[in-house]
Design a protein that fits this description.
This protein has six helices and three strands; from the N terminus they run αααβααββα. It is mainly alpha-helical. Strands 1-3-2 form a three-stranded antiparallel sheet. The relative contact order is 0.10.
């Protein structure tokens, strides 16, 4: 059987130059791809995913999130700080209590689509 692998092709030879050119033209800048990878890295932590899922359901304060997840307020606060820096959650103050929620509908969509993909 004579099959040519990608590594067997001579260097510099393009089989589909128009396609390669089109894809190359549409590629985001390296910095944008790095930022996208960093965003997905934030989603790669199960504690942060749990927090995001809780906030997908309702706006909550740290003590309530900790109660729902059975974790310490300190652990929740640490992860919320990471999520705030990534602009995935926002907060509002009501007296001494701070309430957290998803930053916008994009975050809701990402979580919803992820769950939908897993349930297929």
């Amino acid at each position: 059987m004579d099959t040519m692998r990608e590594t067997d092709m001579p260097t510099g030879e393009e089989l589909h130059p128009d396609l390669i050119s089109s894809v190359h033209a549409d590629m985001p800048a390296e910095e944008m791809l790095y930022d996208l990878a960093e965003l997905f890295r934030i989603f790669a932590d199960s504690t942060r995913i749990k927090i995001l899922y809780v906030l997908f359901e309702a706006e909550m304060c740290v003590c309530d999130i900790a109660q729902v997840l059975g974790m310490t307020q300190s652990a929740i606060s640490h992860q919320l700080r990471v999520l705030k820096q990534a602009k995935l959650v926002k907060f509002r103050r009501d007296g001494k209590t701070i309430y957290y929620s998803l930053a916008d509908d994009h975050v809701r969509t990402i979580i919803g689509m992820g769950m939908e993909h897993l349930c297929e």
